[in-house]
Write a structure and sequence with these properties.
With 355 residues, this protein is α/β, with parallel strands linked by helices. It is built from 14 helices and eleven strands. Strands 1-9-8-6-5-4-3-2 form an eight-stranded parallel sheet. α9 packs across α14.
Length: 355
């Protein structure tokens, strides 16, 4: 049996157990997602920040571009995220200096958002559209939601950053669990204490694979066929790559962001709460450095408050104030098409594993 004929490819009806990570914020365009799925992998939409209409429109566009399976990822909202007036005012003052430097007329402020309502509407669309695969990050949905999705044939993927989270996901009914190491770029799926999720892929993958009976897909710092082969030797049945797909031509990443990824050194990433209030790995820049040691608002409040600054920075081409999420394997990123990357990953893995 070949390296790609296993429980994940059989369950998802895909040719290769390679997932493109569902990166939120406009990175996962319908072209990127369908390109991965058409190449035999699983393309995934990072829908955490999208409205229900945006999700529905992108699902339609993906279905026009591919008849293969694809996934949609949602963030499970934290009902306890809050800050008092003094904390909010203090962060407004800190960020005012940056908004002023970027020539913004409006001072930073916290918009009113109902995350529970947004999440419910997002879920409604996934139910109505009967998406093939649904993955969740930052928590486990209520059992009724998982049951409802499974009833219509949707495969459930959960994200775990330690063994405890993986076991909880299996008990909740996950069909596949992503074991996400600390090397991963951007936000990771930790839903316990943040310290509990700071485990490297080499240690995490075999421990999660031993602890659960459902298939495990490895994520975190995997950029090429060597990473895929290593993850599978450690007990994973599949892999999920994020940073490697960000520099593809079809990705929605800003040109400055792609440039930063293609020119970064391996020691340039760091984890920060500066942009969002939740630990996320990105390429170090001035904003990250200057915000060090400051008490941020909890996620997603900090994320909402810094969003206009990041948007203006992108508009003015000021990468020092943008969130340049990247995994620790960033120097292996290449400027390619999705098809070229997938061919390279598949052929390289075949050479290493099908001997």
């Amino acid at each position: 049996m070949g390296w790609n004929q296993n429980s994940i490819t059989a369950m998802l009806d895909i040719k290769y157990p390679i997932f493109q990570a569902p990166m939120a914020g406009g990175m996962t365009t319908p072209q990127l997602i369908s390109g991965v799925s058409n190449s035999g992998g699983l393309g995934n939409m990072g829908a955490g920040y999208m409205s229900s209409d945006e999700i529905r429109n992108d699902i339609k566009r993906i279905r026009n571009l591919t008849d293969k399976p694809f996934g949609v990822n949602l963030f499970v909202p934290d009902s306890e995220a809050s800050a008092d007036a003094e904390e909010i005012s203090s962060m407004e003052d800190v960020l005012a200096g940056y908004s002023s430097e970027l020539g913004m007329k409006e001072k930073p402020s916290l918009p009113e958002k109902n995350y529970a309502a947004l999440y419910r509407k997002q879920l409604d669309v996934l139910m109505e559209e009967q998406v093939p695969v649904c993955s969740f990050t930052f928590g486990i949905p209520e059992s009724s939601i998982i049951s409802e999705l499974k009833k219509q044939g949707t495969i459930i993927i959960g994200t775990a950053t330690n063994v405890k989270e993986a076991v909880e996901w299996e008990e909740a009914g996950a069909d596949v669990i992503i074991a996400q190491g600390v090397e991963a770029g951007g936000h990771r799926g930790t839903f316990g204490s943040e310290e509990s999720g700071l485990i490297g892929s080499m240690a995490l993958i075999p421990q999660v694979a031993d602890a659960v009976s459902c298939p495990v897909a490895a994520a975190g710092g995997i950029m090429d066929s060597r990473g895929i082969a290593a993850a599978m030797m450690l007990g994973a049945a599949g892999v999920q790559l994020g940073t490697a797909f960000l520099t593809c031509r079809e990705s929605g990443a800003h040109s400055l962001y792609k440039h930063a990824l293609l020119n970064a050194r391996e020691d340039q990433t760091a984890v920060t709460k500066a942009f969002s209030g939740k630990l996320a790995r990105g390429i170090r820049n001035r904003f990250m450095e200057e915000m060090k040691g400051l008490q941020t608002l909890p996620y997603p409040l900090q994320n909402d408050m810094t969003a206009p600054i990041r948007k203006q920075a992108a508009k003015l081409e000021q990468p020092e104030f943008m969130s340049l999420w990247a995994g620790q394997g960033v120097t292996l990123a290449e400027e390619v098409t999705v098809k070229e990357l997938m061919i390279k990953l598949v052929m390289g893995t075949e050479t290493l594993l099908d001997k």
